[in-house]
Amino acid sequence: MIVTIIEKEILLANDISDKLRKLGYKTEVFECINKAAKFSTGDVYLLSTVFSLNSTKAFIQKFKQRSILLLVSHKSNETLREPIKLGAKDYIMKPVSIDILVKKIEHYHEFEKLKFKNALYGEYHGYVVKNIALEKYIDKISFPMIIITNNIAYIDQLVLAYGKRKDINIMFISLITKNWREKIQCADLDQPLYLSGLESLNVKERNSLFDKLQDRKFIVSSFISINKPYETIEIAIQGTSLYKNEILPISSYALRVIKSLQHKISDIAISEKLGYTRKKVASLRKKHELFKDNRLGV
Prior knowledge:
By secondary structure, the protein is an alpha/beta fold. Helices cover 47% and strands 16% of the residues. The strands form 2 sheets. The protein has a 5-stranded parallel beta sheet with strand order 2-1-3-4-5, with helices on both faces. Strands 7-8-9-6-10 form a 5-stranded parallel beta sheet, with helices on both faces. Helix 3 runs parallel beside helix 4, helix 5 crosses helix 7 (152-166) and helix 11 crosses helix 12 (278-288). The radius of gyration is 28 Å and the shape is elongated. Mean pLDDT is 83; it is low at 240-245 and 293-298.
């Protein structure tokens, strides 16, 4: 990270620069705000308020996408209100406390990175879902809810789009990962959760999951039906995949095959297509309570 210091008091600027360099930062120092506007390359700017208001305003407008901290000798509306209104993030009083300065540098630099990532992911998600028909189901979403589907990828996008529309930050948890219990435990009680991959859990694990979800806002998606006292909807998507190159875990693929073909061909034929023994297919049925009367029309 490069910290740019723009200050007429060159001894003060060099002192701050030396202390930051000892802490591992790269720095650059400018006595002139106009030169800094032309040649600076910083990630974070420490801008003294000793320069003219017009020069300060022009500089902030040019670099408002960066983190700008004001170096202030005294607080007043003239030195703080307008620059902060234009985009400066914060201020720090002279003489400068390096400990406080470093905390502010790290805080606002991290904030800018998160803001950039959020905008990037938001733009990408909009691109992904623009050609996906969401309106048919999005108004059916609520908390708590179980969604049974033949296309988990579609439900992933549906729930994310729902969160965006309702301005809700929904926490995603994959039940395929080993630490899903810890993620639920660490989440705030009022944090809405979206849990994908219920079919990867055995019956005991599923019961444990719903015990942990009591009194929480959640949506669970699954290939397989489940008997729980929550609102449940079934969404069957025509076609085999939302994405041509979608890759499923082997167990999820096997469950999808069993579920989609069990009313069309025998278990013997299913086991042959999967390269499984009949005992393996029977074991999967038992583990996931996937019985032939437990049908999803796909």
